[in-house]
Amino acid sequence: MNLVDWRDAPLSDAKRVLVIGCSGAGKSTFSAALAQALGLPHIPMDRDFFWLPGWKLRDRAAIRRMMAEAAAGERWIMDGNSAGTLDIRLPRTDLVVWFRLSRWLCLSRVVRRWWRHAGTVRPGMAAGCPEKIDLEFLRYIWNFEKNETPEITGQIEMHRPDVPVVVLRHYADADALLARLKTPV
After folding, report:
1. If both were cysteines, with which of 35, 76, 117, 152 could 42 make a disulfide (CB 3.0 to 4.6 Å apart)?
2. Do 5 and 170 form a contact (C-beta atoms < 8 A)?
3. Pick from 67, 37, 80, 43: nearest CA to 180
4. Which backbone phi and psi does 176 adopt, to 5 degrees?
5. What confidence tier does 4 reach under pLDDT thresholds 50, 70, 90?
6. Which InterPro entries does the annotation name (predicted)?
7. Residues 6+ apart with CB under 8 A from 5
8. pTM surpassing 0.85?
């Protein structure tokens, strides 16, 4: 994997950026800010591909078709997980930003998000999908590094071993990366 320090992230050349990481890591918030800073369209996968009203998961074939259409675009920032669809997104990606924060931090952010948006649809989520939390979702977050990271790493190695991958382990690094875009070089 082509790991790149966030200070050396090739942002000025990136036209298609994939932001991945555990639920609650801040992918959507970061992606929206990055999209604004770079003047790229922001595509939240949960909102645009996965969920229909009532938390009904869209048909897998439809998800893959819609994702392929979006990935074929010339410019985008796409945030979300789904290691099983990296084969569609990675070949078109110029840069991967991977949030790898502690499980405790991700869990606490998901609980705060649920508390803040309970009973309502949060920004960036599909219409008709009010914020919810359950034991299955909490387990997914707790086991994300163990269960998802090997597949993500394998998909990167298989489909784009040359793509620059910036791993962010602290919010301070994400904030500094965004601040770098606002500072003239």
Report:
1. 35
2. no
3. 37
4. -70, -35
5. very high
6. Cytidylate_Kinase-2, P-loop_NTPase
7. 166
8. yes
